[in-house]
Automatic annotation (TrEMBL):
Residues 12-279 form the Pyruvate carboxyltransferase domain. The keyword Transferase does not apply. InterPro entries: Aldolase_TIM (IPR013785), HMGL (IPR043594), PYR_CT (IPR000891). It comes from Streptantibioticus ferralitis. GO terms for molecular function: lyase activity. Keywords: Lyase, Metal-binding. PROSITE patterns: PYR_CT (PS50991). It comes from the Bacteria. This is Hydroxymethylglutaryl-CoA lyase. It holds the Pfam family HMGL-like. Belongs to the HMG-CoA lyase family. NCBIfam families: PRK05692.1.
């Protein structure tokens, strides 16, 4: 094997974000039954963690305003189904439906904290504090997201030290895992390695971290490989490369799950995902959305015959 496989983890957990990060960004609201079918098909293709929706203010993200209708349609599915929760109101809505895995979502920059949460960084962490405590007390797992870890559309490049500080504070609140977001897709592999080394230096080791790359500049796969080489073994991806963020205009689709699985398969890393089935799911979803998937792997595999 030409690639030094001892440098990378044997196992990678894929955290599928298509139904949440992907569909939150669609202009047209996708019918709830189509979302449920999308999630069922993702689970049937072997994905074990599928971020299903958000319990945010319905006016802020109308695309996901049907969380109450969607979650009960997924009961019994053989997959973890985390959901985004920004505040206590959102937590109450999630717990009432039996959601047992949530994610709070902070920002390394003041500009995005304000745009996305209507709060400063300090205020947003204060908003999360009772959410994390109450969720953990209720037995729920709590992921933290940290957005704008590399660059911010208003503030430009984000200093590594600033990211490390907010990351530390999210773990101090009680998050069990932290996903490092390249919200606008500007990271490059050297920057990823540098940030992970700086986090490692303060005890935030790769086993507690995930990476969340958007693919604006086509760097998401290269960045993922750099993260794997730094010991990260949880990678966020979105089926078909759906995605973006309605509060960061320069955000485009996430790393496509199919592109990730193709690379991992080539590296001999088993993900348990059936790539043909996943591709068929993204082609099916693209037909609902009325445009082809931007994923190169989806395009290649679906045009093979
Ligand atoms: P706010 O306007 O400051 O809200 O928004 P508020 O706290 O002042 O409350 C105003 C009213 O909203 C109240 O109602 C609340 O009850 C209600 P009233 O008393 O006036 O009748 N309210 C809610 N209702 C339902 N569910 C709720 C909720 N919260 C308050 N959860 C807020 C603050 C945080 C709510 C708002 O800013 C918000 O919802 N933001 C979410 C934005 C979002 O979802 N962005 C996308 C996800 S982040 C992302 O995509 C990045 C990521 O992928 C990683 C990466 O790529 O970097 C994760
Ligand atoms: Mg995102």
């Amino acid at each position: 094997m030409p690639f030094p496989s001892e440098d990378i983890p044997d196992r990678v957990r894929i955290h599928e974000v298509g139904p949440r990060d992907g569909l939150q960004n669609e202009k047209a609201v996708v019918p709830t039954e189509v979302k449920a079918e999308f999630i069922r098909r993702l689970a049937a293709s072997g994905l074990k963690t599928i971020e299903a929706t958000s319990f945010v203010h319905p006016k802020w993200v109308p695309q996901l305003a049907d969380a109450e209708q969607l979650m009960p349609m997924l009961s019994g599915l053989d997959a973890r189904l985390p959901a985004l929760v920004p505040n206590e109101r959102g937590l109450e809505r999630a717990l009432a439906l039996g959601v047992d895995e949530i994610a709070v979502f902070g920002s390394a920059t003041e500009s995005f904290a304000k745009a996305n949460l209507n709060r400063s960084v300090d205020e947003s962490l204060a908003m999360f504090e009772p959410v994390v405590t109450r969720a953990r007390d209720a037995g729920a797992q709590v992921r933290g997201y940290l957005s704008m870890c590399f660059g911010d559309p208003w503030e430009g490049p984000v200093p590594v030290r600033q990211v490390v500080q907010v990351a530390r504070r999210l773990f101090d609140l009680g998050c069990t895992e932290l996903s490092l977001g390249d919200t606008i897709g500007v990271a490059t592999p050297g920057h990823v390695t540098e940030l992970l080394a700086a986090l490692h230096e303060v005890g935030l080791t790769a086993d507690r971290l995930a990476v969340h790359f958007h693919d604006t500049y086509g760097q998401a796969l290269a960045n993922t490989l750099a993260a794997l080489q730094s010991g990260v073994c949880t990678v966020d991806a979105s089926a078909g490369g759906l995605g973006g963020c309605p509060y960061a205009k320069s955000a485009t689709g996430n790393l496509a799950t199919e592109d990730l699985v193709w690379m991992l398969n080539g590296l001999g890393i088993d993900t348990g995902v059936d790539l043909d089935r996943l591709t068929a799911t993204s082609v099916w979803m693209a037909a609902h959305l009325g445009r082809p998937s931007p994923s190169r792997t989806v395009r290649a595999l679906s045009h093979k015959e």
